[in-house]
Amino acid sequence: MLLEQAYEQAPAVRSGTYLTTVNEFTDQQPALRTELLREACERVVALGDFSAADKLLVEEDKGAILGAAVCLVTGLPLAVARWYAYELPAPAPDAPVISVPIASEYFSGTLYVNGVERGDRVVIVDDTISTGGTLAALIRAVERAGATVTEVLVAVEKPANGGVKRIEREFGISVKSVVQVDVDEQSLRTHVLARA
Fold first, then answer.
1. What mean pLDDT do residues 41-58 have?
2. Containing domain of residue 183, as a range?
3. Which residues contact residue 123 at a Cβ distance below 8 angstroms, ignoring those fewer than 6 apart?
4. CATH for 140
5. pTM greater than the 0.90 cutoff
C-alpha cells in the first residue's frame, strides 16, 4: 500500500514537544503522487459513512488536499477552516465565520471556519491525528455553528500522542483512521503499526 510506504522509515523532526513525520503525503517531500492521493482518498471514503452528511469540513493546511479529493468522490460540499480571518461580512445570518482557539502538535492560535451553517451534518476529514488539537478545534467550530459532527475520518493516526482518546473523552466522538504510525525517538524514523 502506498500510504504505508510513504510513512515507513520517513524522517521525523521535532516540532515543539512532539516529533512530526515529514513525508510525501503530508508534506509533499517528494511531490505527492496522484496514485498516493487517490489511494488515501479511496481508503478514507471506504472507512466512512457519508449517508447522514451534507457537508465536509477540513483545515486548510495539510488536511485540505485529502479533503478536496474526498469532496470530489462523495459529491459533498467542502467547508474549510483557515488560519487567518477575512475582513468580510458573513455571507448570511446562518453562516457566520466561526473562530475557535487551536493548540496542535505544531501550531497554536485561531482557526476560522467558513461554510458551516446551523443544522448542517458534517463529516470532518483530516490527514493526521496526533494530539487531537486540530480536530478538537474543528469539532468546537461545528458545535458553535449549531451543526452536528456525524463522523471524523483521518488517514493517519499517531496513537502515542493520545489524540483519538482525547476526542472520544472530550466529545464522545470516535475517530476512524486508515493507518497507525509511531515515531522512534532514537532513530527519528517512522514505523507503521497497523492499518484498517
1. 97
2. 2-195
3. 48, 50, 53, 55, 56, 57, 76, 149, 150, 151, 152, 153
4. 3.40.50.2020
5. yes
